[in-house]
Structures are given as C-alpha cells and as structure tokens.
Write a structure and sequence with these properties.
Number of helices: 2
Protein name: NAD(+)--rifampin ADP-ribosyltransferase
CATH class: Alpha Beta
Biased composition (Basic and acidic residues): 1-10
CATH architecture: Alpha-Beta Barrel
Order of helices and strands: EEEEHEEEEH
Structural class: alpha+beta
Organism: Hymenobacter negativus
Oligomer: single chain
Pfam families: Arr-ms (PF12120)
Number of domains: 1
Radius of gyration: 15 Å
Biased composition (Polar residues): 11-21
Number of strands: 8
Largest sheet: 5 strands, antiparallel
Length: 148
C-alpha cells in the first residue's frame, strides 16, 4: 500500500506493537495537518449537522467511506490521528453487528490528517451498486444512522 505523509515519504504499515493506523474515507480534498471535525453536514442520510467524525482501522471500511461520500471529485482516503477519546461506531458495531468487525469508531474531537493513501483499490461496480441500492432501501424505510 502506497501512502504519503506530511514528510511526503511512504508510510510503513503499523506493526502489532505500535498503535493502530486509522483511516477516514471522504471526497474532501485535504492536506496534511488539516483537521476533520464534527459540526459539518454529514455525507450520509439526511445530511444533518454531524456531532461526530468517523474513522476506521481497516482500509476496506475507509474505501466504502470514500466511495459513498457525497460530493464531486474522486474519493480519497486519509491517514488520520484522533486528538481525543473515541468510541465504537454504533452503526457498525453492537447495535447492528456483534463486536466491531470493521474496527470503526467515532469521536467528537477533530482528526488530524497525517497523510493520504494514494493507491487504494475501490470495490467492483456490482458491489458499489448493491451497497447504494441497500442504502436507498434503508432510506425509504426511514432507517437512519444512529446519532446519539
């Protein structure tokens, strides 16, 4: 996996002895040392003002975020560093699935952009279409994201 960091050097995958690497998928065009913060309109659902920002320790979950985010331009995946406490994302954990298989989290504190993953592989057109159809069915049923 090729990544760029604030020093524009490739970032090595994190070893088990280090803290986990976190990702954030979006269509926003950001640069190192920018902050992703709550308070902006969500990229999903009714696009309400978001009380949380979301991050994940898996590239696959970040890829979905980049592919499904609203907006123009290409999806992007950023390496991010949380600046405060975080909790499991209830949309993808115990309230919907046992445990936290996607290693997805949320925080009310900003995420600092440390770099960008530049060579990620998107899902197949069929997978992407199926996911968008699934999300549209949920919307029609009135099922929104959990926002405590």
């Amino acid at each position: 996996m090729k990544t760029t960091s604030r020093e524009d050097k490739p970032t090595q995958p994190t070893s088990a002895s280090n803290s986990p690497q976190f990702y954030h998928g979006t269509k926003a065009n950001l640069k190192p040392d920018d902050f992703i913060q709550p308070g902006f309109n969500s990229n999903y659902g009714q696009q309400k003002q978001a009380s949380y920002v979301y991050l994940t320790a898996t590239l696959d979950a970040a890829t979905w975020g980049a592919e499904l985010a609203l907006g123009e331009g290409p999806g992007r995946i950023y390496l991010v560093e949380p600046t405060g406490p975080m909790e499991d994302d209830p949309n993808l954990t115990d309230k919907k699935f046992p445990g936290n298989p996607t290693k997805s989290y949320r925080t009310q504190h900003p995420l600092r952009v440390a770099g960008e993953v530049t060579d990620w592989q998107g899902h197949s057109p069929e997978q992407l279409r199926a996911m968008k159809e699934h999300l549209e069915r949920l919307k029609q049923l009135g099922i929104e994201a959990i926002e405590d």
